[in-house]
Amino acid sequence: MQDPKLYGHWPYRGRPKVTWPGGKKMAFWVAPNIEFYELHPPKNPHRSPWPRPNPDVVNYAYRDHGNRVGNWRLIEAMEKYSIPGTVSLSVAMCDHFPEMIEQVNGLGWEFFSHGAYNTRYTYGMDKQQERETLQHAIDTVKAATGQRVRGYLAPALTHSVHTIELLAELGFTYSCDLFQDDQPQPLNVPGNPLVSMPYSLEVNDHYAYNVFGQSPQQYTDVLKRQFDTLLEEGGTSGTVMCIPIHAYLVGRSHRMGPFDEILRYAEEHKDDIWITRAGDIADHYLANYYDEAKAHIAAGGGSDDT
Amino acid sequence: MTLDTEFMEYPMRRKGMDHDLYPAANLFEQPKITWPDGKKVALWVTVAAEFFPLTPNQDGFRAAGHMATPFPDYRTFTARDYGNRVAIYRLMDALAHAGVNVTAFANSAPINRTPALIDDIESAGWEIAALGTDMNAVHYGGMDVLAENKQIETCLSAWADRNVTPKGWMSPGRGQSDATLSLLKSAGIEWTADWGNDDMPYVMNDGPIAMPYTDEMEDRKCLTMLGQDENIWSEQIIGAADLLSNEAETYGGRVLHLALTPYIIGQPFRIKFLRDLLSRLMARNDIWSATGSQICSAWQNCADTGD
Predict the structure, then answer these.
(1) To the nearest whole angstrom, how far is the Cα of B216 from the nearest Cα of chain A?
(2) Which residues are CB-neighbours of B11 under 8 A, at least 6 positions away?
(3) CA pair distance B292, B245, nearest whole angstrom
């Protein structure tokens, strides 16, 4: 397979203009990954869950720090600036840490599915198994929070060639799995409309801290530059900025201070940006721009405009 | 493709943890801890005294810092040995000058191989916590329990022969099997540093107390694995001290753990940054410098009385 044909090519220039509610130029959302990694996960034939034999105490404890310590710091900081989270949820957290899920649900945070556990990969599943895990996530979150899950980020970003079409089949409205754009756009799937929602690897705290080795202050500076550029470009057509984070990284005692700064920065710009949740961005896009975008892409995708 | 049904089942899915090693907890709901003199942050400085054999272990996993090239890896072997013969003396001077109380995580192999190293660690007044026999002696899932117990006994009896009774333990590479905690408890160990999942000590169900080892601020992780600048490393630690001190006002005393590795932070071009960092930390009036056992016992006293 050369190209999964998930979406049509659609140059950034010349697209129909998007405007967010209130005439805002940039939609801003924060995606705390609230995850559970298992101490003794079954070994997927295509990917080993841990670098060391189970129990990989060092790596397990590293993630568990988020649920004992980091998430509570993060929740408090986001509350301080009235920024709601859109949670990338290991849905088993509804069973393991129901108090945490209840608390953020009460704060108006949205939940989307990030699989059952972040140690359960899609690799090797047949289509029916993958469909069952998606339905299971919908049912689990509905029972625990009353929310109907609308978005998806595959656990540990492990996909199959069926993932995207299954999302549409099961009534999801957005996918955070694809990284081709700074604006939402229609995905090529049969059935219900499905939007690709900008998430980010480049400004993900995992990349910042564990791949690029940035300091907490450097990460905040990176986020501010990302923010400034996308806000400026949003004057041409509305952009989306997402800050994808993990409490076990950003919620550490040496990082929470500088991270607080970017939340404050967003709050200070609230007149220019739409501080919101991913599901609301998808809804607004579906109601106002999806059909127009789809037609524009089908008609040549703006390639003729330049 | 179809996955085995095992992959679609979640036998340990329930309220709390997916194991019975310790209960789930929220740091911000724990009893308030009061440190001596009402200090807000206990500064726990640890120094690793590691012996990496030239022929590395083949089982389990290889501890960070171990041999990397095909045998014989003279470059790594000698670069690690540098830590135990040169760099650790720079640390001793810097830590003594700043008046810091220290816990050494020391392999037992040097007791006989290089006894002067252990003499000097003791003369420096550092607490000795066990770190297994050498960096080959890892604990890992699936290892034979009798062999594992023997590994622990060999280490502790070597210390006993020297009239040292370590209260603390760190497994080489901080790996554990499912039996490690229980074996360590039976061997009389009071606290361990393998679990880095909290910012405060906590009680294991059947094991020693877990002390809050902080791998994210280790010199090894920041300076060598991530290639950070030394100033960036120091600033992160100061930032952590500030945040923890601030939290302590509401939630009770906190612990700031600083893990030092002589062959890394004791390099001539780096030692200045350690001296500067220690002097900044020790100049603060909110810091209590203490060993692992001092912190653990002060924590236990408060946790027991609900103070």
Answers:
(1) 8
(2) none
(3) 19
ipTM score of complex: 0.96
Is the peptide bond prior to A55 cis by the omega test (within 30 degrees of 0)?
yes
Number of residues assigned to chain B: 307
Angle at B256 between CA B32 and CA B23, to 5 degrees: 55
Q: What is the pTM of this model?
A: 0.96
State the nearest Cα–Cα gap between B123 and chain A, in angstroms.
Answer: 32
Band of the pLDDT at B305, cuts 50, 70, 90? Answer: low
Q: What's the burial of B8, exposed, middle or buried (CB within 10 Å: 0-12/13-18/19+)?
A: middle
- Interface contact A65-B240, CB threshold 8 A: no
Between chains, do A72 and B28 touch, taking CB under 8 Å as contact?
A: yes
Token code pair at residue B211: 């002390």
Decide if A52 and B175 are in contact by the 8 Å CB cutoff.
yes
CA distance B296 to chain A (A): 19
CB–CB contacts below 8 A, A to B: 146
**CB within 8 Å: A68 and B243:** no
Query: Smallest Cβ distance to A69: which of B19, B198, B239?
Result: B198
Of A53, A62, A68, the CB nearest to B215: A62
Question: What backbone phi and psi angles, to 5 degrees, belong to B47?
Answer: -125, 130
Q: Which two tokens stand for residue A251?
A: 């919620």
What is the DSSP code (8-state) at residue A231?
H
Question: Which of A44, A68, A254 minimises the CB distance to B217?
Answer: A254
The Cα–Cα gap between B251 and B248 comes to 5
Question: Would you report the helix, strand and coil content of chain B in percent, each value rounded to 5?
Answer: 45, 10, 45
**Residue B71: both structure tokens together:** 């045998």
CA pair distance B156, B159, nearest whole angstrom: 5
Compute the distance between CA of residue B254 and CA of residue B260 in angstroms, rounded to an integer: 19
Residue pLDDT, tens place only, B225-270: 999 999 999 999 999 999 999 999 999 999 999 999 999 999 999 9
Average pLDDT by stretches of 10, chain A with 306 residues = 92 96 98 98 94 96 98 98 98 98 98 98 97 98 98 98 98 98 97 96 97 97 98 98 98 98 98 98 98 94 49
| Angle B95-B100-B106 from CA coordinates, rounded to 5° | 70
Which tokens belong to A165?
């079409």
How many distinct helices (H) and strands (E) make up chain A?
A: 12, 9
Find the distance separating the first CA and the last CA of chain B, reported in whole Å. 58
The most distant pair of C-alpha atoms in chain A lies apart, rounded to whole Å, by 57
Rounded to whole angstroms, the maximal C-alpha distance in chain B is 64
Residue A47: count other Cβ atoms within 10 Å of its Cβ. 13
**Model confidence over A22-49: pLDDT tens digits?**
999 999 999 999 999 999 999 899 999 9
Question: Looking at CA atoms only, how far is residue B7 from chain A in angstroms?
Answer: 6
Q: Please check whether residue B256 is in contact with residue B240, taking contact to mean a CB–CB distance below 8 angstroms.
A: yes
